[in-house]
């Protein structure tokens, strides 16, 4: 599998952001209350906090 997080523009069907920071299967993605950050968990048992505006893992 590709282990990607892709955020889509649903109006155009085009990807806005693609993140490939996960080495294994992604289990979960959850956004914070205002949509500025999201966190992920994957099979490597690490929690990642991501900033989609910067397209990077911040914690």
From TrEMBL:
Organism superkingdom: Eukaryota
SMART domains on file: WD40
Entry protein name: Coronin
Organism: Cirrhinus mrigala (Mrigala)
């Amino acid at each position: 599998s590709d282990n990607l997080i892709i955020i889509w523009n649903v109006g155009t069907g085009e990807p806005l952001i693609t993140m490939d920071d996960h080495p294994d299967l992604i289990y979960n993605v959850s956004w914070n209350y205002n949509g500025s950050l999201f966190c992920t968990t994957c099979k490597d048992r690490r929690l990642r906090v991501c900033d989609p505006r910067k397209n990077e893992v911040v914690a």
